[in-house]
Design goal:
The protein is an alpha+beta fold and 247 residues long. A hairpin with a 4-residue loop joins β6 (179-188) and β7. It is built from eight helices and eight strands. InterPro entries: Dimeric_a/b-barrel, NIPSNAP, NipSnap_domain.
Length: 247
């Protein structure tokens, strides 16, 4: 009896193990890589677009010495005019914090880059995204134009709509209607949102590929499956700046 009491005492005193989380409840493939991409959109004051871009071109080196610029574009079509869009890469959130602290101490960047440009900006937006696990960032073979297609999906995450969305993207790529640069999933900002960055030689080649894809039963079938989980979508045609790493 004494032995039984001691056994029960040890059992009650033992630390409680944390319950294991069943993988079937996950919202999608795990994000193990800390690398993320910050999407920044600046809405410029009317008539200030050229002045802003010239100043950025002249002084962008003051910013890129601190962290990697993936691409910098002016928005040609889609939404509000006088708008620029750029993507910055960070190793993790600690890295971004270190960069922001360094910029706060960089007097040359503040005086030549930040302060002059702030006077030209009407509004700023930031969104944190990850590359989806089944996609790598690909540099296009030559200069062209870019399309950023944004898909607002139903709540539930990639566990609900990830596979149909992936099939829809890959069907466009596999048939050669466009070139895929990257697929990004929002981490901070509007949730359940995916961005697909496409590349085409020109706006006309993009239009031609889109018209052909609409007649392809493989693309139509994949899109019909994915659209069941879609709430809204929008896009922008992006023109790379002369100082953009992605041309």
């Amino acid at each position: 009896m004494l032995a039984l009491r001691r056994s029960l005492t040890r059992a009650l005193a033992a630390p409680t193990m944390a319950p294991q989380v069943c993988s079937s409840f996950a919202t999608g493939p795990r994000q193990y890589d800390g690398t993320f991409y910050e999407f920044r959109t600046y809405y410029l004051k009317p008539s200030k677009m050229n002045e802003f871009l010239e100043n950025v071109k002249k002084n962008i080196h003051l910013r890129t010495v601190h962290s990697e610029l993936v691409g910098y574009w002016s928005v040609e079509f889609g939404g509000r005019m006088n708008k620029v869009f750029h993507i910055w890469k960070y190793d993790n959130f600690a890295h971004r914090s270190e960069v922001r602290k360094a910029l706060a101490k960089d007097k040359e960047w503040q005086e030549q880059f930040l302060i002059p440009n702030l006077a030209l900006i009407d509004k700023q937006e930031s969104e944190i995204t990850y590359l989806v696990p089944w996609c790598k960032l690909v540099k296009p073979p030559k200069e062209g134009v870019y399309e950023l297609a944004t898909f607002q999906m139903k709540p539930g995450g990639p566990a609900l709509w990830g596979d149909p969305f992936k099939r829809a993207v890959h069907t466009h790529v596999n048939q050669g209607y466009t070139k895929l640069v990257g697929v990004f999933h929002a981490e901070y900002g509007v949730l359940n949102r995916d961005h697909v960055l496409w590349w085409n030689e020109s706006a006309d080649s993009r239009a031609a590929g889109r018209h052909q894809s609409h007649e392809d039963p493989r693309v139509v079938a994949a899109v019909r499956e994915s659209v069941n989980f879609l709430e809204s979508q929008q896009n922008m045609l992006l023109i790379p700046t002369s100082f953009s790493p992605l041309k």
